[in-house]
Request: fold
Amino acid sequence: MKRKVLALIMVAVMLMASFAGCSNKGGETENTGTGSAGTDSQAEATSAPEKTEHLIITYLYMAAAPADLLKVQDAVNAITVPAINVEVEFKPLGIGDSFTNYSLWISSGETVDLMMLAFQDIKNYVNSGQIEELDAYISEEATPTLYSLMQEFPIATRVADKIYGLSPVGVNYGDKPGIIIRKDYFEETGYEVKDIYAMDELTTVFAAIKEKHPECYPLSALGSAITAGNSQFGMYYGGNAPGGNINAGYLMEADSTTIVNLFETEEYKNFLNQMAQWYQAGYIVPDAATTDTSNNELLQTGKVAAYAMSQKPEQFASDYGFKVTGMATGAGRIGAFYGATNWMVPITSSNPAAAIKFMDYLYSDSNLSNLILNGIEGTHYKVVDPDNNVIAFADGLDATNSPYYNLLGFWGDRRNEYTFSASATRQQHDAFTQECMNNKFKSYGFNFNSADVSNQILACQTVLDQYQKALETGSLGDKWEKTYNDMVSQLKNAGIDQVIAECQRQFDEFLAQ
Reply:
């Protein structure tokens, strides 16, 4: 499990930041005085300093805790104590160990005020009663930054309409189906640059690339890209899985309120047929279903020309030794959002209100979030391009010897984060988010609690593990239909209809609110 988590994080490195701002909180004042008839009474004001609130906050790392973590902790407290009267104590923990340690800590009654949950399902902690509901601590008056951001972005993780987690503000939101493709190969085809391409237009481009570069496979379509609970269908056709898992059903259109079994739709069968045709035409790598080689490696080495990927701005800045562009097959959209990371308050917290007060300040002050993320300016990093928030290691340091370097940036508002390489501008990210927000699925804001059908979901995933990679990579050629029919039948036996019915029931309740 640890190796899978670490591999996932290395692919999806997150560096965090947040808006600048601060607030000051003074102590209470009590007036006392004495006087007598014929003389003026004078009240002497004395300030009673407010007790500093101490918080224990988990600090996740990949290989080892940074050597200068205590120095950064001291620098954090130099900001937070004067501003909000909160003192932070970081509790370092390897991310792999968090999968087991969190529950053990809570069960044993250990005091921890904030836990970063990374690549785990927060509903497991909700269903076991191990974390606090946060609604009572978040309001426009008490936490204005969090309250405002929650109106704009899906940072509040809800279960049964109650808030249990807070995710970092993303660099952007939503996604757009399509493929990432070598720009030079695309331009060689002479094909028209368009906003959206049909699937048969991809076929035309693939054919032209194969003719000019017979040694290259136009598309990777790897089975390893099909993660549990997902399907490559969405990368080409769009849609949304409102339950966060393909086994809980699918919404085919943004205005739809009916959750369907994706695997029984004509659209899915057309997708499988298209993949089979591309495979037979020699457009997909022969070992797509079984290879462990990544899409990035195949593209960089010249073995493939393209792979399916959401058309986010940062995707086009990757350094392959050549430029890439996108061929979108649908409009940007956003539906039910299940963040990979959440801040949660365990029931063993000594002060949940102070924990959320700290979070509110963290999301408002980019100096604080960048301090925790990147360390101390001049000591651990230097700013090389302030206009684009690009930094570099301080002189004499690099990723191998820096005393403060952590790839796990889960802190605050990512839109103003410092980064070690420029990818896309804030304006590009914001424009992408706005496009997707203009095409919201009815499932936006919905969070499915799968506890009552968890066994059926596991059984369905076992079926998909057996059939999905061979089908969705096209590797079965024109003999795919029998395997497809077997998969659909076994999904029925595993209980996919019950899972979808439960998701629909909760979705109907969500829509009625």
